[in-house]
Amino acid sequence: MAEEFTKLPDGLPQPNDDGASDHLLGMTIPNIILPSTKCSVLDFSKIHLNYKVLYFFPMIAIPGQNVPSSGWNDIPGARGCTPQNVSMSEYNSDLQKYGAMSIGISTQSINELTKVSFLRKFSQPLVSDSNLEFQEKFNIPTFQFENKEMYKRLTLIVLESRIVKVFYPVFSPDRHIFEILEWLEKNSK
Predict the structure, then answer these.
(1) Which helix (H) or strand (E) holds 167?
(2) Structural domains of the chain, count
(3) 3-class SS at 86?
(4) Cα dist. 112→8, 22, 61, 160 in Å?
(5) Domain that includes residue 39, residue range
(6) What is the DSSP letter of 68?
(7) Among 16-30, 52-66, 99-113, 130-144, which stretch is predicted with the lowest mean pLDDT?
(8) Per residue in 100-153, pLDDT tens?
(9) What is the pLDDT of residue 74?
(10) 43 strand-pairing partners
């Protein structure tokens, strides 16, 4: 039977700030185009909202399938992609009040992301960065699991094209939306 991934189990190890995101604040997002669940591709330069909330996550579970193998819950910050994406979707209208759009970014294939987005009815786009373009251009923190390179959980708030806030590490992922909304309330124009 598949494990239910919408709730976080107790006792997950909390990630520590290893400094891997310290360089990101103030950087400018260049034109990046990636496959998206809401349209064939998402061109980051064509999003004309006040804020882009770019949240990176390792791997979201597809309902009805066991993902991943043992050891996943032992990696600090790995578990929680489903609850994080669910909460981002549920609070999408709250983000829009601040002229913000959330975009989930993972190294998973677009086919997997499209399937889970459709099944869970996510309102936000998920994009596949399977070629690690953000990692290459920004040195976004990653980790290895089962011979796959995955993004560590991280959120960037981008005003126009400049990174104005970095949340790293992110814990607890299911409650992270409230940190984002609080920041937007205090800092939005």
Answers:
(1) strand 162-167
(2) 1
(3) helix
(4) 21, 31, 9, 29
(5) 35-187
(6) S
(7) 52-66
(8) 999 999 999 999 999 999 999 999 999 999 999 999 999 999 999 989 999 999
(9) 87
(10) 33
C-beta of residue 33 within 8 angstroms of C-beta of residue 41: yes
Supply the pLDDT for residue 160.
87
Q: Is residue 50 part of a domain?
A: yes
How many Å is the Cα radius of gyration of the chain? 15
The answer to whether residue 10 is domain-embedded is no
Q: What angle do CA 130, 134, 136 make, to 5 degrees?
A: 95
Helix, strand, coil proportions of the chain in percent (round to 5)? 25, 25, 50
Token pair 């999408």 is found at: 92
Strands 142-145 and 148-151: antiparallel
Query: Residue 154 in contact with residue 170, Cβ under 8 Å?
Result: yes
Residues 13, 83, 138, 112, Cα dihedral to 10°: 120
Whether 158 and 166 have beta carbons less than 8 Å apart is answered as no
